[in-house]
Amino acid sequence: MIRRKVFPEVKIDWMLFPTALLIAWGGFLEEYAVAYFSMVIHEMGHIAAALLFSKTVKCIRILPVGLNAEIENGTDSQWKHVLIILSGPLTNVLLFAASSAVNSLYFENSANIRFFVITNIYLAVFNLLPVLPLDGGRILKEVLKGRLGLISASRVTGRVSVFFCLDLIAA
Known about the structure:
Elements: E1 9-12, H1 16-25, H2 29-52, E2 57-63, E3 66-71, H3 78-106, H4 111-127, H5 135-148, H6 150-170
Parallel strand pairs: 1-2
Antiparallel strand pairs: 2-3
């Protein structure tokens, strides 16, 4: 009988603690905690979608910039993979909409909730940039892979990533 692991392996990056200490020392621990929470929920969106499609989450890495789930690829349809990738930014969009509504209805524009609202929409938009290893870059590579093959898709996505990075640096 083949047994599936119930819980994935969890790895903590050693840079998490020095990063958090530096951020606390700089006086930004509250903002970091809010952004970190949003990044964790983003990754939980990927994990939930993967589990919905009966994928195995092999490993979860806890990094200074949030979580990173290693999800089995398998040979499923390209669109299932794209939906799993899209689920992270969509989770941030849902958090943006819900927290924006709650903020305006119940908290009369609380600064803390406004920061949470802005953080989530920024995370969604930033993650959809067609730059590897962001979700947008992974989606671009997945779509191109179906049309051009893996090697050409990797090459094109790499070039697009470099272009966007150079454009961001020049801006």
